[in-house]
Structure formats: C-alpha cells, structure tokens
Design a protein that fits this description.
Two copies of one chain form a homodimer.
Chain A: H1 14-18, E1 22-23, E2 30-35, E3 40-41, E4 44-45, H2 47-61, E5 66-74, E6 81-92, E7 97-106, E8 112-123, E9 132-134, E10 167-171, E11 188-195, H3 203-209, H4 216-219, E12 228-235, E13 244-249, E14 252-254, E15 257-265, E16 271-280
Antiparallel strand pairs in A: 1-2, 2-6, 3-4, 5-8, 5-12, 6-7, 7-8, 10-11, 11-13, 12-16, 13-15, 14-15, 15-16
C-alpha cells in the first residue's frame, strides 16, 4: 500500500501524479503521459483510469474545464508505460465545448497504436443553476463499516491487481457473494468508493469511479474478463468531499454482450455521475 | 400523409429513400446526402433521423454491417438540404469494428459546418449467440388501439412538425397529459412506434426510434426545446417485424440538464435497443 500519512488533496495525490500530462513542445493539443502500473487489473490498465487521463488532457485542451458527457470506445488493451494523447477541439461554444481525443501507445517499432478514442462535451459545473428535480434514489447499501474491504478476505478483484491498493473499495456484502462462490444472480454491484490516499473526488476521478468496481457479470456467476466496448459517462454535479457510493446494475445480458449502468452518489446525497457501458460478456 | 397503398419494405420506403447516401467518386468514405424536410420538428431536422443517416454511412464504410453502440455529440442544428458525411475506419477487428463519422452542411460561402460527430462500434447481429439472461421488462403500455395517435386531437409534437406524418406514433395516455395542460410530473414518455408507410424496423430505424418521441421534459411540465448534447444507443438485437414499444424515463433533472433513458422493445418481447441522452432542460 502506498498510503500517505496525511490525507492527500486534489492536485497532490497518487491519482493526480499518475494522471499527469505533459504538453508536447510545438505540438498544440498533444500530451505525453505515462500509464502507471499502479492502476492495473491483472496486466491490463483499468479503463476508468485511462478515461480520467484522457479527460485531463481534454480539460487542458478545451475552453471549458469540466467533463459533462464523455463517450469512449475501447480499441485495444493498454499496458503500463508511455502513451501520447492527441486532442482536437471540435467546437467551442459559449456554455459547452466538444472535443475529441485518442490515447496511443507504441509498438516494437515505435509506431502509434490507438488504445481508446473519446468524444466529449465539456462545460463549467460551477456555472450551473442549483435547481434539482429528481426521482433518483441513492443505492441502498449498508453502512461503510458493514461493507467488505480488501482486508476482509477474498480480494474484491481476483488475481494480482495493483488497482486494489489505490482504492478504498468496500463492497456491499449482498453483491460480494461471487467471491465465495455464491453470486446473487442479480447482476448488481454496490460499493463505497474512495481513493486510498484519501483524496476527495472531483469530476476527473468520477471517470475512474464509474469503472472501478468488479464487473456485474461476477454477480451473475460469470467470473471471466468483461472487456468494455464503449463507456459513456455523464458528470452531473461536482462531488462533495467524502466517500462516494457507486451502484451498478446489468439488466440485459444477450447475444454475448451486456450493459452496465452505474450511478455515483456523493456524501451530500446528490447523483454526481451516471454511466452506461456496453461490454462483452464473459463466456459461461 | 404520404402513406403508400401497399406496405413499404426495408430498402423500399420513405425512411430508406430519405437516408440514401451517395458515395463520392474518388473520395473513399465520403458520402453525399440530402436532409429531407420530411423529418423536421418545427424547423430543425430530427436528431434520430440524422443519426440513422450517419449510421447508414458507417455501415457502408465499415467491414461489419450493424451498429452495436453509437455515440453522437450534437454540435449545431441541422436544416433540410444538402449534407456530406465523412467517415473514418478507426479499427477493423474480427468481430467488431470501430468508426468515426461527421455530418456537415454548408454555410453561405459553401464552407462545411459540422452538425454531428459520431463514434460507433459495429458488428454482425446475426452472428451473435441466442443466449439471453435478462431481468428487463417491456414498458407497461396500453394496447395499441387505446393509445393516442396524431388524429386524436393535440399533435404529439406541437408546432408544424413534418415528422409527425412520417411516424405512426401512438402515445400512452398516461404520458400525454402535457398535451392538454396536465403533465404527470413523472418525466416519462411511452408510445407504440411504427414508420407511417408500414416499413418494419431494422437496426438503422432503431436509431431513429430512440429519439422520436416527445421529450420527457414535456411530462415534467417543461414544454420548451430540449436540445440533445449527446446520445448513445446500443442496438442489442435485430428487431422482429411489427410495431415497437418505446419507453423513455428521465430520473434526474439538475443544473439545467437532464438524461433521457430509452428502451425499445419489439413484437417478440425482446429488448432491441437501449439509449441514453444528455439534453439541456427547457427553461421553466
């Protein structure tokens, strides 16, 4: 574990250091990055971490700071090591701007291989009116201390997964049965979510949070790999400090694909992010 | 109404004629098109119709025929008239391929103005296994004959909207109260959906179906324009012949934006499409 003694802060944390982007001199909109081995599941880099990195590049490239809606199509698996993010401003409007970004890594000859392509519309969350009209309810999840952390026994994610040490993930016991061979069969996953060094959430870390829980397929009894084809996230509100609650539901597994619908709620009981992904179902 | 006497068929219908694309000689992946005035709401071209047109271009450009997941960011309003669709093959895999497309129109000087940019992953729906594991249920909607068509009185969409004549849309009376000044306040919209000339649904027309109902904001008592920022659609199954049922729900209107979650079910009771859009909320 790489916990720091003092609580990390937004801008000075593991997550911020590992999503650092370096503008390339003379190439506007191009950013070099290093995919950290700290955010891997087995050997692949976590898709939410990748998305946060691309999100940071778009935040730098676009005239508006905050992701409002981010659509990502996953092309090839990422591995720890160097990467380059190429961004393009598609449209700069008054309240919203739209950008595109691709993250590339390099093959043995140094040629760029595209990992993920993203279309996103950005705005300013702090400029939005306070009006809320919602019938959405936070996920029903037991108190933090009654949920299961990595220390509880079975790792939340099987295999040698470095990301487990970067997150303080506490699973609802009702959706953790798969870890002891007794999945609920419902296709649900719920957890408390914090970064391990205590850094509070911001819009960029929400892009990580929507894709950081074990796959809902585990709760259906399918313990294999469920690679993301496409993941779209809406950031609806700047999150308040404190732990997040994440609830994910799969309703329809069909034809070898499934959707994962995630909601992220903050400590002020606000729905801060909604996401949906299409993933390949693990083979039964 | 432009009903034909005989039932139109896939490939020979209003929808097919109005989504015709013409490959440009010498420019691979570039397609000319004409946005038909038949699919407008007030003066703007319907976003689902646009998406179907772009979807057809991607189907021509990619090695796989069917949209699996299509993410569209809407940039500027489209108007009837000429357009050009520029596609790019991002990745061609064995089971899935990913493409990008932009639809442009032209300003007074002939310069291209981008209307919509799309990232999409395509596959072959007929090549998928038949396995289904679902807890999703079709929308609860009264029988076709008890729902409200355009002839029932108030137009399903207010104003002079040509698209009304292209669709056989029959609204659930429970979600049509806004038309007589009594919205339910729930943010729901449900309807039977067919093309007016009787053409059966296919994956491309599903891209139209997810964005063809009146906005859920109407059911919240907000009767203004709710422009789409981003719309992502998953096509999960090739639809069976016969009318579709479309259910749309908004759970969270906040900060001046709302999501619309749509499901489309076919006559065989299968969930054939899921979509979510982020839209600007009409001003109260």
């Amino acid at each position: 574990m790489s916990h720091t003694a003092a609580q990390a802060t937004i801008g000075d944390s593991e997550f911020d250091r590992d999503t650092t982007i370096a503008p390339r001199a003379g190439e506007p909109g191009v950013y070099d990055a290093e995919l950290s081995a700290g955010w891997t599941i087995i050997s692949a880099v976590n898709g939410g971490y990748l998305l946060a990195l691309v999100g940071r590049a778009l935040s730098a490239a676009l005239p508006h700071p905050d992701p409002f809606t981010v659509s990502a199509h996953y092309l090839t698996s990422s591995v720890p090591g160097p990467a380059v993010i190429r961004t393009q401003v598609v449209r700069a409007g008054r309240n919203l701007s739209t950008g595109q970004a691709s993250l590339f890594q390099f093959d043995e000859n140094g040629a760029e291989v595209e990992r993920i392509r993203v279309l996103a519309s950005y705005g300013d969350l702090d400029g939005l009116p306070d009006t809320v009209h919602t019938v959405a309810k936070p996920p029903v999840i037991p108190p933090y201390e009654d949920c299961l952390g990595a220390e509880a026994g079975p790792a939340p994610i099987p295999g040698s997964s470095a990301i487990v040490d970067r997150l303080r993930l506490r699973l609802d016991p009702a959706t953790a049965g798969w870890a002891v061979g007794a999945p609920s069969g419902k296709g649900e996953m719920r957890a408390w979510f914090e970064l391990a060094d205590g850094r509070d959430a911001d819009p960029l870390s929400l892009l990580l949070a929507v894709d950081a829980l074990p796959p809902t397929a585990f709760d259906l009894g399918l313990l294999g790999w469920a690679p993301t084809v496409e993941l779209t996230t809406h950031i609806r509100c700047r999150p308040a400090p404190g732990p997040l609650r994440v609830g994910i539901v799969t309703r329809n597994l069909a034809g070898g694909f499934l959707e994962e619908d995630a909601e992220v709620w903050d400590s002020a009981d606000r729905l801060v992010a909604q996401s949906r992904q299409l993933a390949r179902a693990p083979r039964p």
